[in-house]
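Each record in this resource describes a single protein on a pair of labelled lines. The shape at a given residue is found from the number at the same position. The record below illustrates this layout:

***
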Amino acid sequence: MKRVKLVAARAEKCWTLEQAAEHIGCAANTLSRWELGVMTPSAYYRARLCAVYDKPAEALGLVEADEVIPLTDLSALPKELQTFLHADLTTRLMTLVCSPQASRRHLQHLLSQTIEEFTMNTGHDVTLTRREALRRLAMFPVLLSASGSIQRPTEDTLNQYAAGITACEHLSRGNYEDMALAFSVLSTYVPVLKAIVRESHQYRKEAAGLVAQGYLLLHVLGLHVESPTVAIAKGYAQLAVTYSQESGDLFLHLKALRNLAWDYHHSKQFLHALQTIEQARYLVEHRRTPVSPQVRSSIYSTLALIQVKNGVSATPTLHLAKEAFFAPTNDGEDLVHVDFGGYGRLMKHTGLTHYYQAEHKEALDSFAQVIDPNDLSTKVTMPIRIHVGLLNDQTLTALKSPTRDMEQVIAFWKAGMQGAIGLQSQQRFEEACTTYEVMEGVWPGEQRIKELRDLVVHW
């Protein structure tokens, strides 16, 4: 159903879709889908819409009748306690962890919703920052495990680890310290959860799902905190595939297969990569009910760029990826526990596919949809690690383009290298170093390129 109030709010501003989307920080097509009612904005973007249009969610038609709002009973508390709870994210999150929930997945949904809404709420004095709250929530299961003499019900243990994994997912989008903490605590979660898989018949599948989530995050973080070579050798993605199968969660399994395909791709085992992502494609296309557009788009866009590396035309598959991304969404499908990436990842895959097909202009145009080529800022919300990766992709594409511009290449490369060093990402640093070697080959003896060598400093 079309959201008339949302359309009217944009009309009041006299903005086009593109102008409004730029203010909100999303793609114009995404805003169109919200207005048409075929997709519902997340808590983060609901808050952005309210802020940009200066209207409450109700006035924009963004509040669903059956929407669950965490801590709805705050009004029964004294005003002083309400003020504290609104300002202290740690207490709010822990209240959710300790409250009865319909399922672990529902708990993770409420936690993510609360985190996103708190991030956008600047109307109060924040006594504990979002980052501090996430770090505390991530550490909570570790501290409880250290108290080994206290026996806790498995139900409570799973809730605590589900909450910790949610915190780690949000921390993984931040700087090096946050990624390193998330990587470290996840490494302590996994053995405990694997023991539950082995020993508990009742909770085996749920625990296996949390193990798979843990390994998926360890895979992503390991690429940066350790290195691609180490992370791939440790087999995080393969372990995620194994435990996602054990859990029976199709969406975890699809993401694990996608990540494993990336490992094969990075190792230049292109046929294995193609066979793996084709498994995911088969599962997507043979499910009785269609999977969500976000999932289909992610699988198809990954398949497209791997097809190119195997000498297969990727144009039809890339079309499917874009078509799926903008298809009506299934609001009943809760994927908060599995992040397949949004518009930024789609444009990254699209750009890389064009790059592999030597379509450099189309590749740069795709990257420009999410990274401003002039000031190199992001046009949509994305993790820092993805932003820096896109900068590296832009650099290599501009460098290989027949119309390459040295000034532009240098600007892209500097931003990517500085981002890699600031993030202390081993993967992004290696990418930037590889690109620099290509630059030296393209412009041998060029003084300006030689001077860039001083910026190649590992932390």
Observations:
- Residues 65-72 have pLDDT under 50 and may be disordered.
- The longest helix spans residues 176-199.
- The domain at 1-64 is CATH 1.10.260.40 (434 Repressor (Amino-terminal Domain)).
- The chain has three domains: 1-64, 68-248, 372-455.
